[in-house]
């Protein structure tokens, strides 16, 4: 990574193992692209089109995208909205350092967040979840935020967890790690014993039409030379020529990260804290439902036994610091931690 070129244009960086595994994808790329690879033995790069404003790092295998993101922060080449994506994650982690089951052919990314509201506040997790839910909504996928950091999808009246977000701050930089189940998901028997919601995968993503669409986005996202133009038949065939579905996943991330930044910039221009809260509330799962919060932690120390009790009530709002406002038999309670179960 030390040989990363300095360029005002957004670039996509690939590791050499990725190149070896995805020859079909790179077959029609400009020769200058291949030369860039030869000049950097461990990593090569291609310029992204003008609608990308930040770099993207692509790896075949990582311990976790969060680990690599923190490494890039230390090397001072990971600015806000720069992201890392990998095809395989061997040591993914979730909340409280729990193991995240990183099954094959799903989305695993880490992205740097700007040091501005809401990401410099306690509302960072639900605000980011709401932004991602809106971005997915724009792409045609209906998602809700299970407070504070799970992405869920409703099917036949029941919610399934299709993704999760983990925030980590080091070296004064906030990084969000995210996984979304696109082609596979863990069965209940693979989850920890105290899981509160079954896993699922993003509904309809794995349709052939979507695969072809995101393959084409992946290919068309690069500037590949004046004499090159995207070949629709070629783009459609990428999926069938590759050993896995990662090119479509890469195209999906290209589309999603652009929508995430567009959404963020729109709400920043509004300069209205209430607008952020309204966005969170719009995509909040279980709003108005009777729920049980296990291991509830409250802002006002309602409980004598910290994190050991369950509280029943109805979710009625989200507070300006990202806390849940719960209507209970004890009155209004502000929840700052715990796991939600629908009663």
How many strands?
13
The low-confidence runs, each spanning 5 or more residues with pLDDT under 50, are: 1-6, 304-308
Largest sheet descriptor = 9 strands, mixed
pLDDT averaged over residues: 84
Put simply, the count of helices is: 9
Spatial separation of the terminal alpha carbons: 50 Å
User: What proportion of the residues form beta strands (DSSP E)?
Assistant: 25-35%
Structural shape: globular
Sequence of secondary-structure elements: EHHHEEHEEHEEEEHHHHEEEE
The whole-angstrom Rg is 21 Å
Strand order across the largest sheet: 2-1-3-4-5-9-8-7-6
Question: Which percent range fits the helix content?
Answer: 25-40%
What structural class is derived from the secondary structure elements?
alpha+beta
Characterization of this structure:
It is built from nine helices and 13 strands. With 343 residues, it is α+β, with helices and mostly antiparallel strands. The strands form two sheets. The chain has a nine-stranded mixed sheet, with helices on both faces. A four-stranded antiparallel beta barrel has the order 10-11-12-13. Strand 7 (150-155) and strand 8 (158-170) form a beta hairpin. The N and C termini lie far apart (50 Å). The model is unreliable at 1-6 and 304-308 (pLDDT under 50).
């Amino acid at each position: 990574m030390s040989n990363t070129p300095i360029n005002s244009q957004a670039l996509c960086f690939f590791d050499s193992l990725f190149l070896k595994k995805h020859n079909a994808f790179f077959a029609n790329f400009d020769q200058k692209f291949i030369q860039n690879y030869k000049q950097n033995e461990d990593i090569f790069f291609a310029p992204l089109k003008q609608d990308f404003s930040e770099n993207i790092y692509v790896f075949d295998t990582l311990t976790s995208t969060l680990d690599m993101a923190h490494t890039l922060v230390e090397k001072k080449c990971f600015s806000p909205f720069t992201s890392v994506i990998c095809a395989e994650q061997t040591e993914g982690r979730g909340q409280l350092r729990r193991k995240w089951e990183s099954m094959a052919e799903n989305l695993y990314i880490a992205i740097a967040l700007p040091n501005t509201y809401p990401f410099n506040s306690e509302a960072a997790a639900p605000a980011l979840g709401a932004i991602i839910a809106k971005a997915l909504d724009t792409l045609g996928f209906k998602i809700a935020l299970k407070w504070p950091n799970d992405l869920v999808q409703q099917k036949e009246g029941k919610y399934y967890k299709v993704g999760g977000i983990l925030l980590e701050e080091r070296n004064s930089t906030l990084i969000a790690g995210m996984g979304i189940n696109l082609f596979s998901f863990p069965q209940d028997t693979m989850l920890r014993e105290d899981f509160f919601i079954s896993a699922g995968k993003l509904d309809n993503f794995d349709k052939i039409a979507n695969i072809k669409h995101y393959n084409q986005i992946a290919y068309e996202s690069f500037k590949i030379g004046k004499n090159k133009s995207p070949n629709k038949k070629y783009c459609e065939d990428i999926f069938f020529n590759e050993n896995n579905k990662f090119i479509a996943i890469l195209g999906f991330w290209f589309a999603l990260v652009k929508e995430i930044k567009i959404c963020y910039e729109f709400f920043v221009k509004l300069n209205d804290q209430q607008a952020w809260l309204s966005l969170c509330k719009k995509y909040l799962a279980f709003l108005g439902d009777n729920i049980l919060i296990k291991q509830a932690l409250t802002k006002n120390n309602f409980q004598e036994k910290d994190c050991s009790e369950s509280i029943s009530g109805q979710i009625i709002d989200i507070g300006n610091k990202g806390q849940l406002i719960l209507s209970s038999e004890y009155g209004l309670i502000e929840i700052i931690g715990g796991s939600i179960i629908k009663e």
